[in-house]
């Protein structure tokens, strides 16, 4: 039924201008805005919809993962751009905020609406 559909995902934020600035300027993504909605454009035509929600509650799980070749370099760049990495109990991270406890090297951070994102080394 959907084998040829170009599906996309989406998530809510409580402040579209703040999200546009964060995703466009801080993270350097290509972002477009139409009818009060944002679209994050990723390579390969994979778009993600960002929509306003007045009673937004941040996701308690990772909504976007950004694979990188060098997580230390990415963490340093993001920190220089004002991003703060999350620290979770029972998941020790190094001084950069990178979790090295098994699986891919990963560091979590939040967008201005409190949604959880990650950068992970592949």
Describe, in plain words, how this protein is organized in 3D.
The protein contains two helices and seven strands. The protein is of the alpha/beta class and 122 residues long. The strands form two sheets. It has a four-stranded mixed β-sheet with strand order 1-4-3-2, covered by helices on one side. Strands 5-7-6 form a three-stranded mixed β-sheet. A hairpin with a 2-residue loop joins strand 2 (30-34) and strand 3. The longest helix is centred in the first third of the chain and has 11 residues, at 16-26. It is globular, with a radius of gyration of 15 Å. The N and C termini lie far apart (33 Å). The mean pLDDT is 94. Residues 5-122 form the VOC domain. It comes from Nonomuraea purpurea. InterPro entries: Glyas_Bleomycin-R_OHBP_Dase, Glyas_Fos-R_dOase_dom, VOC_core. This is VOC family protein.
Give the tags.
2 helices; 7 strands; 122 residues; 17% helix; single chain
Helix content, binned percent: 10-25%
**Can you write the helix and strand succession as a string?**
EHEEEEHEE
**Order of strands in the sheet with most strands:** 1-4-3-2
* Proportion in β-strands: 25-35%
| Poorly predicted regions | none
Number of helices: 2
Give the N-to-C terminal Cα separation: 33 Å
Radius of gyration: 15 Å
Major pleated sheet: 4 strands, mixed
Shape: globular
Number of strands: 7
pLDDT averaged residue by residue: 94
The structural class is alpha/beta
Fold blueprint:
Blueprint: E1 9-13, H1 16-26, E2 30-34, E3 37-42, E4 46-52, E5 62-68, H2 71-80, E6 106-110, E7 116-121
Parallel strand pairs: 1-4, 5-7
Antiparallel strand pairs: 2-3, 3-4, 6-7
């Amino acid at each position: 039924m959907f084998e040829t559909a170009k599906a996309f995902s989406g998530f809510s934020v409580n402040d579209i201008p703040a999200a546009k600035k964060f995703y466009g300027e801080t993270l350097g993504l290509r972002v477009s805005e139409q009818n009060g909605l944002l679209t994050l454009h990723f390579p390969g035509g994979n778009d993600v919809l960002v929509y306003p929600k007045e009673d937004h509650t941040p996701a308690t799980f990772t909504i976007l993962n950004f694979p990188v070749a060098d997580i230390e370099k990415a963490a340093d760049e993001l920190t220089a751009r004002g991003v703060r990495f999350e620290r979770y109990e029972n998941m020790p991270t190094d001084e950069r905020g990178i979790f090295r406890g098994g699986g891919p090297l990963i560091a979590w951070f939040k967008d201005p609406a409190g949604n959880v994102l990650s950068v992970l080394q592949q």
